[in-house]
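job 3f2a | input accepted
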Amino acid sequence: MATLSPSSPRSDLDAGLAAFRAALPKETRGADTADRLCAIGTFAHLAKGEQLAPDPRDDRLVYIASGSAKLVAPSGAGSGSGGNQVLAFHFGGDLISVLRHSASEPWGDFRLIALTNCDLVIFPADRFLDIAQAEPAVLRSVLTRSLQALHRSRTRMMQMGHKSAQARIADFLVSMAERLADCRDGACAMLLPMSRRDIGDSLGLTIETVSRQLTELREAGLVATEGRSKVCLPDVSALAKLAGGQHSSI
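job 3f2a | predicted structure (250 res):
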């Protein structure tokens, strides 16, 4: 049966599982497969800045029922430098693959860190996929998400090698407009849960470069900011053109 992390109320698990079930393909939400998947879920709450405890044994699929998080790896692995490389940002409704912790592998230290308070439902990946095989629609949904994540990662890495710093920032903002505000043209406003350092760590830029490029975009009338997290984009299409058209949905 589904289990709770220590001190988590049952209502939190139920709410997390309800959100997960609602995210499944419509035709499968009331099926036996959905019940079996929910039965192996474990609830966890992460406060802002906390990280999901590593698991040395099992790969996991983590569903974000609410909140936002970043998936990071130490950039020092294999490079000799410190700090973190932000591999991806994730938001409510995302299903994330978190690999088991392996001290023997240079990239075996992937960590999920909360950008805001997060409610998570955690599944052992092997058991999840074994159950999902009985329902092709569920398996197809998981595969589609995985392929999309792979495409985003490949596109972003390619862009980091060919795009200017300003184009990377523009691309990032357009991607966040799509994911956080479901906006692809016109004007939109959004609250970014990540810091400028996080943005830089995801794009291969220093925090100083991120700040400088945001200032230039403000002066060009393409971005307006309020406080530390609110960002307004007067014309998403114009920003997308500056980004080079294709963006990575980081």
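job 3f2a | The first strand starts at residue 3 and ends at 4.
job 3f2a | closed
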